[in-house]
């Protein structure tokens, strides 16, 4: 199954929807379940979930956390985390969110010699916790006054889910071959979880799982360093234990340096024997990780399909 063909039509549809929306219609960034009516001058972000005015260094960032996170944020964590990030909290007040309670924290922050005015809305829904963070340089307060930002935050809306095609647009890679897998979940801008079976929330060993993710940061250049790096990444994989390497070797993937590890392991919950395939593809500013997991019985057929998905990934 190919996903390259629907991408262009999906982009055209998305552009048409944004272009034809009324001024008071919330706009949802690609892949986001949270949308709002941004202040005039903000545009949908191209490399992040939110809106921006690059000329004025102003941003609206949208983050989704598990639903359980809201209670702790409301109780104490929000103010503490913001202070650790260098935000001077000036006020906190209740602000109703689209589908549940919410609160707004306002303040300012010094960064790179610039003073930013900050508004951070924390909202609760039955499915997730939303954080809408706004930063505007103090020098642009006449362009984006407090009233305009508050009106944007008060317009926040929630949708149950984002279409899969739209979620895929928000990823830094393209899946040109799914090999019988389907997309279960997408983390906008960073990762996609694929599975094969009736449940989207399946855990091992119920259904094969395939996680594709990107991570920024320095990448090892020497072969020995890449081996240690790959083993370290695999060792931190949640949900499996008693990992025993079957094969570990360098491999070129998509014309770039890569590393392959095939291993046996056990599922933490059921103690079932599973197989693991991890491929790392190294780039100049980070790496792509393809992680496949499935029951040991039937692994050969699944492994062939995992490689097909791996070989069909194109970085944007």
CATH topology of the largest domain: Protein Transport Mog1p, Chain A
SSE-based structural type? alpha+beta
Q: Give the number of helices.
A: 6
Low-confidence segments, given as residue ranges, are: 1-21
Q: What sequence of helices (H) and strands (E) makes up the elements?
A: HEEEEHEEEEHEHEEEEHEEEEHE
Give the domain tally.
Answer: 2
CATH class value of the largest domain: Alpha Beta
Number of strands: 18
How would you write the strand order of the largest sheet? 2-3-4-8-7-6-5
| Major β-sheet profile | 7 strands, antiparallel
What's the pLDDT, averaged over the residues? 87
Kindly estimate the percentage of residues that lie in beta strands according to DSSP: 35-45%
Tell me which CATH architecture of the largest domain applies here: 3-Layer(aba) Sandwich
Radius of gyration: 22 Å
Give me the secondary-structure topology.
Layout: H1 4-20, E1 34-35, E2 43-44, E3 50-53, E4 58-66, H2 69-84, E5 87-94, E6 102-111, E7 114-124, E8 128-137, H3 146-154, E9 157-158, H4 164-169, E10 173-175, E11 182-187, E12 191-195, E13 209-216, H5 223-235, E14 240-250, E15 258-267, E16 273-282, E17 286-295, H6 299-311, E18 313-315
Antiparallel strand pairs: 1-9, 2-3, 3-4, 4-8, 5-6, 6-7, 7-8, 10-18, 11-12, 12-13, 13-17, 14-15, 15-16, 16-17
């Amino acid at each position: 199954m190919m996903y390259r063909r629907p991408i262009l039509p999906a982009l055209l549809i998305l552009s048409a929807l944004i272009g034809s929306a009324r001024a008071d219609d919330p706009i949802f960034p690609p892949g986001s379940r949270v949308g709002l009516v941004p202040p005039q001058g903000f545009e949908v972000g191209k490399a992040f979930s939110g809106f921006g005015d690059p000329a004025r260094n102003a941003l609206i960032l949208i983050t989704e956390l598990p639903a359980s996170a809201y209670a702790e944020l409301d109780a104490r964590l929000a103010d503490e985390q913001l202070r650790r990030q260098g935000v001077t909290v000036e006020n906190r007040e209740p602000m109703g969110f689209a589908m549940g309670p919410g609160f707004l924290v306002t303040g300012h922050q010094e960064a790179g010699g610039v003073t930013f005015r900050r508004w951070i809305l924390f909202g609760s829904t039955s499915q997730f916790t939303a954080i809408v963070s706004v930063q505007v340089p103090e020098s642009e307060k006449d362009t984006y006054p407090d009233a305009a930002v508050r009106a944007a935050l008060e317009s926040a809306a929630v949708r149950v889910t984002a279409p899969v095609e739209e979620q895929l647009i928000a990823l830094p890679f393209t899946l040109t071959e799914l090999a019988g897998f389907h997309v279960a979940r997408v983390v906008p801008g960073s990762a996609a979880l694929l599975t094969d079976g009736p449940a989207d929330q399946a855990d091992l060993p119920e259904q094969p799982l395939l996680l594709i993710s990107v991570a920024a940061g320095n990448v090892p250049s020497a072969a020995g360093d890449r081996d240690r790096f790959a083993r370290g990444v695999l060792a931190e994989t949640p949900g499996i234990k008693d990992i025993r390497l079957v094969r570990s070797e360098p491999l070129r993937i998509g014309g770039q340096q890569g590393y392959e590890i095939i291993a046996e392991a056990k599922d933490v919950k059921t103690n079932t024997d599973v197989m693991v395939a991890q491929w790392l593809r190294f780039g100049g500013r980070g790496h792509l990780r393809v992680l496949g997991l499935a029951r040991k019985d039937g692994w050969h057929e699944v492994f062939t399909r995992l490689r097909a998905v791996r070989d069909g990934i194109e970085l944007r």
